[in-house]
Design a protein that fits this description.
globular, 4-stranded mixed β-sheet, alpha/beta, Rossmann fold, homodimer, 5-stranded parallel β-sheet, 202 residues
């Protein structure tokens, strides 16, 4: 691997299983750097600061936006989520590939900065399964479920801007497909100009 | 999978291990259609007509070129090799993906007809290993080895036109990477417009 690293972005509507897929990909491909996102929301049970998110206060998050330290950020249900510009630049400059999961707005911001990035949209098996998954969480009331379904509609409307679509009807297969997309992208000829030149010269 | 199929082309200089990789990919991904090439050369020990190649006479091959039945053909060391146009069209129209292995000239002809195809170039681990492999075959005299090395130089000069490069320093890994490239390409968004439209409409 030579030259600058590449970014891989995974998005998907709530209920598509993005977190499960992302966790497996990170475990299977430990050489991928990933940027832990910042968030102002409250940690859920089991979530760890610095692992799931950097949990920061809203004033601190806003200070970083002002200081230009945030590459992309979005507000969802009153909470801010974002990615540190410094973390991205440092990894890519070292030739590391980066794996990020963001919502569609975060992905859009990243796409404008990284036109050669790989953007993967995770789809649930069907709309019906998605609704069942959202209701099955039992952590939200009906109004919140409706808000989430509205969010699903919005995220789906952005799916066509992604380079790849993966259907999560089977977690193992979805993970394997996301990993195949990453492996394949690393074999793209433009990433190996140097290797090729060496061969041709020898 | 919807719409027209896609072609995947594997090339590589003599000694890169293209035949071994192609055989494994065909075994692992049986849903890939593949077009057995036509050849006018003599079968090697163990090669079967209709499996390794369709072995045809030179007059018959030339008749098919004249009739426009050959999508791409090349002459190597006095033998003609080619791909049947009819076989390609039939499979692609049925939505089947096609896996072909051709030399660099065959790939060039296919690239002009299938701009959205995936073209994978297989590299040996090093130039030195390649020379050892070519000499190790013991089926050719020194002049033939020199001819083959000349061929290697020519094929390498075309590698940058391929979409992907895979280094065959480990057969299992090379096979896995070629398969990842195929799987990843099938997840490209433009192949799933219909699926997406269904989701967005629901």
């Amino acid at each position: 691997m030579s030259g600058r690293g590449q970014i891989f972005v995974l998005s998907g509507p709530p209920g598509a299983g993005k977190s499960s897929v992302a966790a497996r990909v990170r475990r299977d491909l430990p050489e991928l750097a990933y940027s832990v996102s910042l968030s102002t929301r409250q940690p859920r049970p089991g979530e760890q600061d610095g692992v799931d998110y950097y949990f920061v206060s809203r004033p601190e998050f806003e200070r970083r936006i002002e200081a230009g330290e945030i590459a992309e950020h979005v507000e969802i249900f009153g909470n801010l989520y974002g990615t540190s510009q410094k973390v991205l630049d440092r990894a890519l400059d070292q030739g590391q590939d980066l794996f990020l999961d963001t919502d569609v707005n975060g992905a859009e911001a990243l796409r404008q900065r990284f036109a050669d990035g790989v953007f993967i949209f995770l789809l649930p098996p069907s709309r019906r399964v998605l609704e069942e998954r959202l209701r099955g969480r039992n952590t939200e009331d009906e109004a919140q479920v409706r808000d989430r379904l509205e969010r699903v509609r919005y995220e789906l409307s952005k799916a066509e801007h992604y380079t790849h679509l993966v259907v999560n009807d089977d977690l193992d297969r979805a993970v394997a497909e996301v990993e195949a997309i990453i492996v394949a992208s690393r074999r793209r000829t433009e990433r190996h100009r140097k290797l090729l030149a060496e061969f041709q010269a020898s």
